[in-house]
Design a protein that fits this description.
seven-stranded mixed beta sheet; Tryptophan synthase beta chain; Trp_synth_beta/beta-like; tryptophan synthase activity; amino-acid biosynthesis; 454 residues; binds pyridoxal-5'-phosphate; alpha/beta; single chain; 19 helices; globular; 41% helix
Length: 454
């Protein structure tokens, strides 16, 4: 029987991040200010260090990873690649299924891959504090961990509904020494505006981002950090796909299809972009590879959104970015994959989709939990509800292979474990979860409010 667990040595942790911009046929459009003019780095220096802004705008293919960052990555990297023998047998598929387990990080997801370098570069720039937001708590806990590793204070604006429903992620952040507030708060103008309209507002990621950005912009010792969407975040995540390629090499295999759950796009970018690099470099084995971003039908940014300029937050504090969007005041329904409820998407992922170089599909909530339970019962690992989206898409393809007899090689990124999401699994078992397809009318309504500029 071929290997189940494909491991690397610490020295195999990548030495560089891969910047997909170098290989994009159409380069990403620049962020714009409210006047319709490109926003230069000077405007963003109030909330980001120059080193990260350089990465944000870089066209260099390979960007070196600082040694202290690689040192911190050693806490959990390289992460294992698994061959899912048991799942293959359970499905009776001729397909080979592999998955990379990013849930082995201390915070339990792929997000520390970028929280660590963001903390490092801010520390190097003399910053003392980070203000950030979190939805379900995956990003906030990753930033709390990274802040502690590099000696930064961290304040997290946590979307109120999650603050109330996910007390243990809050406890994790406290354990790593971060301050956590339920957003909207009365500490920022953005928060006070929302509370004035609705004192019981459950909050949203867009509002929490506005609060954190406002705080960072108003204090010289404080910067802002974002856990997805931005180019430098996608860049940092490419260690996932690079490690996976080495692991595939070890077993003499190569994927035909790559699947990853897509919220703001960095998880997908991390798993898929290094394979895109092979294709762009003209490698024969990569010419027909299919890279598939998987999103929920309740927040169908890539599959039903519009490719246009929009704000990254609810209040319009961020620059305008060209991306697929459902409108910045889109209020996502309370589905249980909190990490996939963002109205927009990475500019890089959006451009590649628009150019037909990657694919996107949407899957409904109940089917994702069904896949997660099947995966847990075959492979033992309880996946985060976000990751269950990739599992669903991969299982569906494995079943198609069963019908056609095609022995494809399938790969998905297991972006996180679900140990803090058991209440969601319980709801699924109790039959309390529903499928939700975001109605076309609501999408049209949100798109009415797209910014007008220039
Ligand atoms: C945040 C998160 C995602 C989505 O990641 P993006 O980079 O925003 O697309 C997927 N899985 C898990 C476990 C997450 O925490």
């Amino acid at each position: 029987m071929p290997d189940t667990k494909i491991l690397l040595e610490e020295r195999d942790i990548p030495t560089h991040w891969y910047n997909v911009v170098a290989d994009m046929p159409n380069k990403p459009a620049p962020p714009l200010g409210p006047d319709g003019q490109p926003v230069g780095p000077d405007k963003l220096l109030a909330i980001f260090p120059m080193s990260l802004l350089e990465q944000e705008m870089s066209g260099e293919r390979w960007i070196p990873i600082p040694e202290p960052v690689r040192e911190a990555y050693r806490m959990w990297r390289p992460s294992p690649l698994f061959r899912a023998h048991r799942l293959e047998r359970m499905l009776g598929t001729p397909a080979k299924i592999y998955y990379k387990h990013e849930g082995v990080s201390p915070a339990g997801s792929h997000k520390p891959n970028t929280a660590i370098p963001q903390a490092y570069y801010n520390k190097e720039a003399g910053i003392k504090r980070i203000a950030t937001e979190t939805g379900a708590g995956q990003w906030g806990s990753s930033m709390a961990l990274a802040g502690k590793m590099f000696g930064l204070d961290v304040r997290v604006y946590m979307v109120k509904v999650s603050y109330d429903q996910k007390p243990f992620r809050r406890s994790m952040m406290h354990t790593w020494g971060a301050e956590v507030y339920a957003s909207p708060t009365d500490m920022t103008q953005a928060g006070r505006n929302v509370l004035a309209q609705d004192p019981n507002s459950p909050g949203s990621l867009g509002v929490a981002i506005s609060e954190a950005v406002e705080e960072a912009a108003s204090r010289p010792d404080t910067n802002y950090a974002l856990g997805s969407v931005l180019n430098h975040v996608c860049l940092h995540q490419t260690i996932i796909g690079q490690e996976a390629k080495k692991q595939f090499e070890k077993v003499g295999d190569y994927p035909d299809m790559v699947f990853a759950a897509c919220g703001g796009g960095s998880n997908f970018a991390g798993a898929a972009f290094p394979f895109f690099a092979d294709k762009a470099a003209g490698e024969k084995r990569a010419q027909n590879i299919r890279l598939v971003a998987v999103e929920p039908t309740s927040c169908p940014t890539l599959t039903k959104g519009v490719f246009t300029y929009d704000y990254g937050d609810a209040s319009g504090y961020t620059p305008l970015m060209l991306m697929y969007t459902l409108g910045h005041d889109f209020m996502p329904p309370g589905i249980h994959a909190g990490g996939l409820r963002y109205h927009g998407d990475s500019t890089l992922v959006s451009h590649l989709l628009h150019d037909g170089l990657i694919e996107a599909i949407a899957v409904p909530q109940l089917a994702t939990f069904e896949a997660g339970v099947q995966f847990a019962q075959a492979e033992g690992i309880i996946a985060a509800p976000e990751s269950c989206h990739a599992i669903r898409a991969c299982i569906d393809e494995a079943l198609r292979c069963k019908a056609t007899g095609e022995p494809k090689t399938l790969f998905f990124n297991l972006s996180g474990h679900g140990h803090f999401d058991m209440a969601s699994y319980d709801k699924y078992f109790a039959g309390e979860l529903e499928d939700y397809v975001y109605p076309e009318e609501a999408i049209h309504a949100a798109l009415e409010h797209l910014p007008k500029f220039g």
